[in-house]
User: Which sequence fits this backbone?
DNA sequence: TTATATCTTTTGTCTTATATAAGACTGTAG
DNA sequence: CTACAGTCTTATATAAGACAAAAGATATAA
């Protein structure tokens, strides 16, 4: 039961609906409800947290807005299946609204050490151990993207290639199921760059071919940087647009 | 005064808050309140439309979310100054969070005829008259972007270079102030392309230099396509990210 | 068996009451 | 007269409760 605000003013209690957001979020992270399984009704949640349906509703509103949940009138509220960290947000193939679902192929996962710049970005000391994960994105068999991710080893101990392969590219799910880190979407930055030798080889394009580069820093819900990722995309046949929310 | 829903069920009346959204939107479009001028209070608006404060609030919520309005607790609700059609959405210079405000330079505005493809996109017949507007984007004096817009002449009669120049790049404002067309943000598609001869010349880069290409189709609130625009950006020194909402 | 009505559960909408925030105003100590 | 602290006023923000609408599930009649 959430305590009513205002009883202890000096503690700067958060509004009830924000407390409910946290509670529900925690429950979702804890896996209390499966993906696409419906939550208890708003009224039931209200009883559980000691608030009204309207307050639960306001809380769920914001989670729906963030894409964590989705609703169907007269039916229920559901946990939004964790879309792939890649597929949602970074990659959203546009051409042909038919779902050209991308396939993701793991290239490798190695342990490296942070350079000055990376250490700075991720808020680590220089030389800190990092995992470098590289993946290839295919649509209809054709290679169209390359992705490189960097995660601090400290936050993700024992990350190995097998675990990554198991979940078909769904990094977000791995992060909270195995490491208790829930990723928020970070902002993505877009650049056009010329393909370097290695990118050209992997993407099977000519050297200096224009590639769309996406760079993102994903943070957890406390705002701490957790995953740095860069992707290079061929956009000669497909264009990309930022993922729309449900 | 908005009619209470449910009185005439068969008319499929929209919920009150949606009606309020339309009313407020119309008033904003009509210029009833200036940019950054505050609207009447939620209670007053409630009286005006014959609904409660809570309902007005729900309506304003969505307009705030869309970026049309912004709020300050204890102070009021304001019309969000129309950000430039370019600056908001298409261009959002990232590097250095200090507002490197872009300057926009008009290159020209000419009347052309729609090719098959364009006619199709804009929902016009082939050969329909179009305005082609080209603009240059500068940040700190350096040219970093080129934009080309195409608008049907039918919807924008008497569009001339002077009128465009007057409003410092603010196409959206022109659209509704002069032509009664309120643009919604359309989705933007991102591509990396090699600079063509003309782009290279205007942007002062080498031929085939990688450029970030943004393509957008802006629609009005009825969903009718109104403006087709393409932009080419140099991203060697600046990166771009989609505009965050207030 | 099939279509239709009604019941139940769930989300969606709307109002009312109250809390919180921010300026403006005002009286007072210095 | 000025600086400062209270308080008043007017905003938005939050919370609860009543009711509407939608979607299945179930029962019922042809």
Assistant:
């Amino acid at each position: 039961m959430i305590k009513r605000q205002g009883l202890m003013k000096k503690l700067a209690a958060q509004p009830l609906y924000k407390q409910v957001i946290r509670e529900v979020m925690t429950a979702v992270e804890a896996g209390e409800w499966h993906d696409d399984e419906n939550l208890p009704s708003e009224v039931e949640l209200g009883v559980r947290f000691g608030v009204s349906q309207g307050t639960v509703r306001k809380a769920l509103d914001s989670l729906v807005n963030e894409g964590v949940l989705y609703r169907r009138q007269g039916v229920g509220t559901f946990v939004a299946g964790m879309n792939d960290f890649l597929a949602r947000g970074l990659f959203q193939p546009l051409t042909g609204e038919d779902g050209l679902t991308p396939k993701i192929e793991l290239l490798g996962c190695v342990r490296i050490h942070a350079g000055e710049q990376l250490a700075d970005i991720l808020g680590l000391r220089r030389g800190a151990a990092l995992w470098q994960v590289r993946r290839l994105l295919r649509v209809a068999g054709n290679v169209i993207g390359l992705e490189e991710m960097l995660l601090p080893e400290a936050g993700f101990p024992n990350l190995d290639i097998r675990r990554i392969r198991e979940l078909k590219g769904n990094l977000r799910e791995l992060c909270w199921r195995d490491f208790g880190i829930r990723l928020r979407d970070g902002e993505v930055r877009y650049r056009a760059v010329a393909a370097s030798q290695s990118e050209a080889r992997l993407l099977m394009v000519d050297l200096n071919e224009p590639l769309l580069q996406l760079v993102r820093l994903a943070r957890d819900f406390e705002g701490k940087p957790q995953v740095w990722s860069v992707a290079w995309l061929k956009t000669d046949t497909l264009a990309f647009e930022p993922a729309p929310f449900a």
Notes: Residues 3-12, 82-99 of chain A have pLDDT under 50 and may be disordered. The longest strand of chain A covers residues 103-113.
